[in-house]
What does this fold into?
Amino acid sequence: MPTSVELRQQRARVVESLREITETAEKANRNLEAQERESYDRHESEFRELSERIERQEAQEAREADQARSLGDTSNPGNSEPDRRSQVRRAFVQALRMGPARMAPEQRALVQDEAGMIIVPEELESEILRSLPGLTVIRPLANTRPIGTNRVRRRSLDEVSVGWGKLETGDQSLTDSMPDTPREEYTYVEDLYGLAKVGEDEFDDTDVNLEAFISDSFARAIAEAEDTGFTVGGGREDHEPVGFMTSDGGVPTVTGSSPDYSGASEGVALLDDMKALIYATPAQYRRNGAFVLPSGTELFISTLKTASGAYYWQPSVQAGRPNTFLGYAIHNQEDIASIAAGARIAAFGDFQAGYRIYDRQGMTLKRLEELYAEDGMLGFKVRYRVGGDVVRPQALRILETADNGNGGGGDDGWATRQSAAS
It folds into this structure.
């Protein structure tokens, strides 16, 4: 038996049909034709019948709810939290298909916020967030924390020192192990917008397939943008997360021995600089260390050869395993600068300890009906809220090439090495 909410939704569709019939006649400045009158009367009769059924069903549901409360029964399907989530999910799919304006007020209230945006159900939002680590580079490496505010206050402390000995014998004092005065710092949650386009034929599929399509489209739209933000984002002034490769992140740098590693010996020096990057990182953060650099730099390293023609370093040939350098995994992030004078070309360290991502619950979307109508598509603009910041700069290190003063050696050096390699 349909619930009162479902009956109200049916009645809303009937009202919409009645409105379409009358508007068609009014636009033509005429009375209803015979066929239109017959259809109008049929819909009007159906409206009255649905109104009576809604009244009876609501009274029945009220009696069942009162009985469940009096018996302390929380298993009543019309009164349980799982049923509530199911109604919200159905209403969300209806909002995708019909748009909130065409929904019954009761249904619309389930998925629409004060600004008129469609609220993505928590379960579907969780599915999108779970799929992001498989599509991004930084999120699987970093520390992630869900929050419910627009900013997070961090009390930044220097590392705590400890010492051996008894206090009562004067071997040490509390001031020896106390940190410096904490500093008030904030990490802000920023707005990230993504666009998913769905063909009109997609709406002929089942609700489950539509939800899966939306979830996959949103995840892919979000993944690329947030990966860029976590890596080279400009921070609060640019309404972006703080990228760990930027100066705002405060990560210490290691200066390389060459501007562009263009000579035969200088190319090999890049391997030494990567080793120096490892050992410039404190030992406690090297245990879980990993490299992040663009794929072009990794390719450059893989072409370096000894005088006898043997490669200094070879990528992993085992499927599914990341390449490693001196036992540390290498991950590719294409927003990092390629080899050039004075460029930040690679990062190393414990990203789990050094970088934190803040996921703000409450994903919303807006249905765009007219913008892509000529292409036979519907658009859905998703608003996703996320922040990111370096929380422990000492856990990371950045390799920065030497500055030759003209900034023009990077591309020539890359071309020279590629020519020699071939």
Residues 120 and 182 are 38 Å apart (CA to CA).
